[in-house]
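quick q for whoever's on today - can somebody do inverse folding on this one?? i tried earlier but teh output was garbage lol. tokens:
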């Protein structure tokens, strides 16, 4: 178990995952149980579409809860409060070799993961740095134009 993968995130991202988990484990789970209870009252379960749909919804809910718990368990919360270097939580504007500009958020929660080719290339970079992105479809270079929080 020493190979556990860590997920780097900011305090805000961690709090958002905790809030989602609380919502799913509380009101959403109670609603799923109630939906199953109501569907059972419709009679024969073998041909009861409402019951099967409610059980399916419950299964998806429980899978999401497990995923969130796992992500929170493996979370490494970082305090990245500087705009000097790219880190978890940074919003980075880059320009590729053709001058195309894009903005990416470095976040394993809702953006470009620090484990992705682009995330690895950008981590620690400063404005003006040219990074080389080793992607599955080939390498490309990008210039860091701006970093903000």
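ok took a stab at it. sequence:
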């Amino acid at each position: 178990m020493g190979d556990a993968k860590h997920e780097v995130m900011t305090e805000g991202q961690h709090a958002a995952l905790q809030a989602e988990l609380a919502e799913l484990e509380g009101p959403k789970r109670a609603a799923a149980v109630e939906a199953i209870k109501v569907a059972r009252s419709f009679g024969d379960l073998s041909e009861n579409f409402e019951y099967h749909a409610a059980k399916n919804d419950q299964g998806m809910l429980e899978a999401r809860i497990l995923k969130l718990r796992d992500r929170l368990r493996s979370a490494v919360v970082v305090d990245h409060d500087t705009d000097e270097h790219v880190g978890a939580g940074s919003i980075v504007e880059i320009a590729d070799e053709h001058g195309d500009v894009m903005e990416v958020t470095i976040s394993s929660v809702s953006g470009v993961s620090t484990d992705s080719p682009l995330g690895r290339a950008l981590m620690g970079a400063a404005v003006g740095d040219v990074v080389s992105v080793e992607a599955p479809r080939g390498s490309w270079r990008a210039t860091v134009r701006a970093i903000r929080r």
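fwiw The helical segments are 11-40, 49-73, 117-122. also The domain at 91-148 is CATH 3.10.50.30 (Chitinase A; domain 3). so keep that in mind when u check it
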